[in-house]
Protein backbone atom coordinates (compact mmCIF):
# COMPACT_ATOMS: atom_id res chain seq x y z
CA UNK A 1 0.00 0.00 0.00
CA UNK A 2 1.16 3.52 -0.80
CA UNK A 3 1.55 5.27 2.55
CA UNK A 4 1.23 8.68 0.90
CA UNK A 5 -2.10 8.04 -0.84
CA UNK A 6 -3.36 4.99 1.12
CA UNK A 7 -3.99 3.21 -2.15
CA UNK A 8 -3.01 -0.31 -3.04
CA UNK A 9 -0.29 -0.66 -5.66
CA UNK A 10 0.96 -3.47 -7.85
CA UNK A 11 4.47 -4.90 -7.74
CA UNK A 12 5.82 -2.74 -10.58
CA UNK A 13 4.58 0.46 -8.97
CA UNK A 14 5.93 -0.71 -5.63
CA UNK A 15 9.37 -1.29 -7.12
CA UNK A 16 9.30 2.18 -8.69
CA UNK A 17 8.39 3.78 -5.37
CA UNK A 18 11.11 1.90 -3.53
CA UNK A 19 13.64 2.91 -6.19
CA UNK A 20 12.55 6.55 -5.98
CA UNK A 21 13.00 6.46 -2.20
CA UNK A 22 16.50 5.03 -2.56
CA UNK A 23 15.63 1.50 -1.55
CA UNK A 24 17.19 -0.10 -4.64
CA UNK A 25 20.86 -0.60 -5.44
CA UNK A 26 20.21 -0.37 -9.18
CA UNK A 27 20.60 3.25 -10.32
CA UNK A 28 17.92 4.64 -12.59
CA UNK A 29 19.51 7.99 -13.29
CA UNK A 30 22.70 9.92 -12.74
CA UNK A 31 22.72 13.65 -12.17
CA UNK A 32 25.82 15.47 -13.40
CA UNK A 33 26.60 19.04 -12.34
CA UNK A 34 29.24 20.55 -14.64
CA UNK A 35 31.06 23.58 -13.30
CA UNK A 36 30.91 25.53 -16.57
CA UNK A 37 29.13 25.60 -19.91
CA UNK A 38 32.34 24.44 -21.56
CA UNK A 39 32.40 21.33 -19.38
CA UNK A 40 28.71 20.77 -20.10
CA UNK A 41 29.38 20.82 -23.83
CA UNK A 42 32.19 18.30 -23.36
CA UNK A 43 29.88 15.97 -21.44
CA UNK A 44 27.16 16.22 -24.09
CA UNK A 45 29.71 15.59 -26.82
CA UNK A 46 30.98 12.51 -24.97
CA UNK A 47 27.45 11.15 -24.53
CA UNK A 48 26.65 11.73 -28.19
CA UNK A 49 29.78 9.84 -29.21
CA UNK A 50 28.87 7.04 -26.80
CA UNK A 51 25.37 6.72 -28.27
CA UNK A 52 26.55 6.83 -31.87
CA UNK A 53 26.06 3.48 -33.59
CA UNK A 54 24.30 1.84 -30.64
CA UNK A 55 20.79 0.46 -30.52
CA UNK A 56 18.15 2.61 -28.92
CA UNK A 57 17.89 0.27 -25.94
CA UNK A 58 21.63 0.58 -25.29
CA UNK A 59 21.83 4.35 -25.62
CA UNK A 60 22.13 6.73 -22.70
CA UNK A 61 19.08 8.98 -22.53
CA UNK A 62 19.94 12.37 -21.10
CA UNK A 63 18.24 15.69 -20.51
CA UNK A 64 20.14 18.94 -20.84
CA UNK A 65 18.31 21.17 -18.38
CA UNK A 66 20.59 24.12 -19.03
CA UNK A 67 20.06 23.77 -22.76
CA UNK A 68 16.30 23.54 -22.30
CA UNK A 69 16.24 26.66 -20.16
CA UNK A 70 18.51 28.45 -22.64
CA UNK A 71 16.22 27.57 -25.54
CA UNK A 72 13.20 28.82 -23.61
CA UNK A 73 14.89 32.07 -22.69
CA UNK A 74 16.20 32.32 -26.25
CA UNK A 75 12.64 32.22 -27.55
CA UNK A 76 11.63 34.95 -25.14
CA UNK A 77 14.63 37.05 -26.14
CA UNK A 78 13.78 36.55 -29.81
CA UNK A 79 10.29 37.88 -29.20
CA UNK A 80 11.68 40.85 -27.30
CA UNK A 81 14.17 41.46 -30.11
CA UNK A 82 11.38 41.49 -32.70
CA UNK A 83 9.46 44.05 -30.65
CA UNK A 84 12.55 46.22 -30.27
CA UNK A 85 13.29 45.98 -33.99
CA UNK A 86 9.73 47.07 -34.71
CA UNK A 87 10.14 50.10 -32.45
CA UNK A 88 13.49 50.83 -34.08
CA UNK A 89 11.89 50.66 -37.52
CA UNK A 90 9.18 53.10 -36.45
CA UNK A 91 11.87 55.40 -35.06
CA UNK A 92 13.80 55.26 -38.33
CA UNK A 93 10.73 56.13 -40.38
CA UNK A 94 9.95 58.99 -38.02
CA UNK A 95 13.54 60.19 -38.29
CA UNK A 96 13.33 60.19 -42.09
CA UNK A 97 10.16 62.27 -41.96
CA UNK A 98 11.74 64.74 -39.53
CA UNK A 99 14.85 65.04 -41.70
CA UNK A 100 12.67 65.71 -44.74
CA UNK A 101 10.79 68.41 -42.81
CA UNK A 102 14.04 70.02 -41.62
CA UNK A 103 15.49 70.00 -45.12
CA UNK A 104 12.29 71.42 -46.59
CA UNK A 105 12.30 74.15 -43.95
CA UNK A 106 15.89 74.93 -44.85
CA UNK A 107 14.88 75.17 -48.51
CA UNK A 108 12.09 77.63 -47.69
CA UNK A 109 14.38 79.78 -45.55
CA UNK A 110 17.08 79.90 -48.22
CA UNK A 111 14.94 80.53 -51.26
CA UNK A 112 16.78 83.74 -52.11
CA UNK A 113 20.14 82.00 -51.79
CA UNK A 114 18.92 79.37 -54.23
CA UNK A 115 17.85 82.14 -56.61
CA UNK A 116 21.27 83.81 -56.34
CA UNK A 117 23.04 80.52 -57.02
CA UNK A 118 20.89 79.91 -60.08
CA UNK A 119 21.42 83.47 -61.29
CA UNK A 120 25.17 82.88 -61.01
CA UNK A 121 24.86 79.83 -63.24
CA UNK A 122 24.37 76.98 -60.79
CA UNK A 123 22.68 73.98 -62.36
CA UNK A 124 19.88 71.93 -60.85
CA UNK A 125 22.21 69.14 -59.87
CA UNK A 126 24.51 71.67 -58.20
CA UNK A 127 21.66 72.88 -55.99
CA UNK A 128 20.70 69.28 -55.25
CA UNK A 129 24.27 68.45 -54.31
CA UNK A 130 24.40 71.35 -51.84
CA UNK A 131 21.44 70.06 -49.86
CA UNK A 132 22.48 66.43 -50.26
CA UNK A 133 25.88 67.33 -48.82
CA UNK A 134 24.18 68.94 -45.83
CA UNK A 135 22.09 65.84 -45.19
CA UNK A 136 25.16 63.60 -45.52
CA UNK A 137 27.02 65.71 -42.96
CA UNK A 138 23.97 65.57 -40.70
CA UNK A 139 23.71 61.79 -41.05
CA UNK A 140 27.39 61.09 -40.44
CA UNK A 141 27.63 63.45 -37.47
CA UNK A 142 24.45 62.12 -35.86
CA UNK A 143 25.58 58.53 -36.42
CA UNK A 144 28.98 59.19 -34.85
CA UNK A 145 27.34 60.99 -31.93
CA UNK A 146 24.98 58.06 -31.38
CA UNK A 147 27.86 55.57 -31.45
CA UNK A 148 29.84 57.62 -28.93
CA UNK A 149 26.85 57.82 -26.58
CA UNK A 150 26.20 54.08 -26.94
CA UNK A 151 29.87 53.30 -26.25
CA UNK A 152 29.88 55.50 -23.15
CA UNK A 153 26.71 53.82 -21.87
CA UNK A 154 28.36 50.39 -22.00
CA UNK A 155 30.51 51.26 -18.97
CA UNK A 156 27.71 51.94 -16.44
CA UNK A 157 25.61 49.13 -17.92
CA UNK A 158 28.46 46.64 -17.50
CA UNK A 159 29.09 47.88 -13.97
CA UNK A 160 25.43 47.40 -13.02
CA UNK A 161 25.19 43.97 -14.63
CA UNK A 162 28.44 42.85 -13.03
CA UNK A 163 27.19 43.87 -9.60
CA UNK A 164 23.98 41.91 -10.19
CA UNK A 165 25.23 38.82 -12.05
CA UNK A 166 29.05 38.93 -11.78
CA UNK A 167 29.22 38.58 -15.56
CA UNK A 168 31.90 40.89 -16.99
CA UNK A 169 31.60 42.88 -20.22
CA UNK A 170 28.05 41.87 -21.11
CA UNK A 171 27.36 45.04 -23.09
CA UNK A 172 29.86 45.48 -25.91
CA UNK A 173 29.95 47.65 -29.01
CA UNK A 174 31.18 45.82 -32.08
CA UNK A 175 33.19 48.19 -34.32
CA UNK A 176 31.70 46.58 -37.43
CA UNK A 177 28.19 47.19 -36.12
CA UNK A 178 29.15 50.77 -35.32
CA UNK A 179 30.28 51.37 -38.90
CA UNK A 180 27.09 49.76 -40.23
CA UNK A 181 24.96 51.99 -38.00
CA UNK A 182 26.76 55.09 -39.25
CA UNK A 183 26.16 54.00 -42.85
CA UNK A 184 22.48 53.37 -42.13
CA UNK A 185 22.17 56.78 -40.49
CA UNK A 186 23.79 58.45 -43.49
CA UNK A 187 21.64 56.60 -46.03
CA UNK A 188 18.44 57.43 -44.15
CA UNK A 189 19.28 61.12 -43.94
CA UNK A 190 20.10 61.23 -47.65
CA UNK A 191 16.83 59.49 -48.50
CA UNK A 192 14.88 61.82 -46.23
CA UNK A 193 16.50 64.98 -47.56
CA UNK A 194 16.79 64.20 -51.26
CA UNK A 195 13.19 65.05 -52.18
CA UNK A 196 13.35 68.54 -50.61
CA UNK A 197 16.73 68.98 -52.31
CA UNK A 198 15.15 68.20 -55.68
CA UNK A 199 12.37 70.66 -54.88
CA UNK A 200 14.99 73.32 -54.22
CA UNK A 201 16.72 72.55 -57.50
CA UNK A 202 13.46 72.95 -59.44
CA UNK A 203 12.77 76.45 -58.14
CA UNK A 204 12.72 79.17 -60.76
CA UNK A 205 15.53 81.69 -60.29
CA UNK A 206 13.35 84.78 -60.86
CA UNK A 207 10.66 83.60 -58.45
CA UNK A 208 13.26 82.63 -55.87
CA UNK A 209 14.90 86.08 -56.03
CA UNK A 210 11.55 87.81 -55.48
CA UNK A 211 10.77 85.69 -52.42
CA UNK A 212 10.57 87.47 -49.06
TrEMBL record:
Pfam family, one: FtsX
Compartments where located: Cell membrane
Record keywords: Cell membrane, Membrane, Transmembrane, Transmembrane helix
Parts forming coiled coils: none
Residue intervals passing through the bilayer: 76-102, 133-155, 175-193
This protein's name: Antimicrobial peptide ABC transporter ATPase
Keyword Cell membrane found: yes
Domain ABC3 transporter permease C-terminal: 86-204
Molecular function terms from GO: transmembrane transporter activity
Top-level taxonomic group: Bacteria
This protein's GO CC annotations: plasma membrane
Chief location bin: membrane
Family: Belongs to the ABC-4 integral membrane protein family.
Biological source species: Lacticaseibacillus paracasei subsp. paracasei Lpp22
Entry membrane topology: Multi-pass membrane protein
Amino acid sequence: MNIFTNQSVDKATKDQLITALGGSETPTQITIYPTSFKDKDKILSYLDKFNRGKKKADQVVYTDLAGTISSMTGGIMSAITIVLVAFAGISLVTSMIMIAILTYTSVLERTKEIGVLKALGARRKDITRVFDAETIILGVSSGILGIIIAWLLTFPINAILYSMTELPNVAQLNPIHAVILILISTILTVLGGHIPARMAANKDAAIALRAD
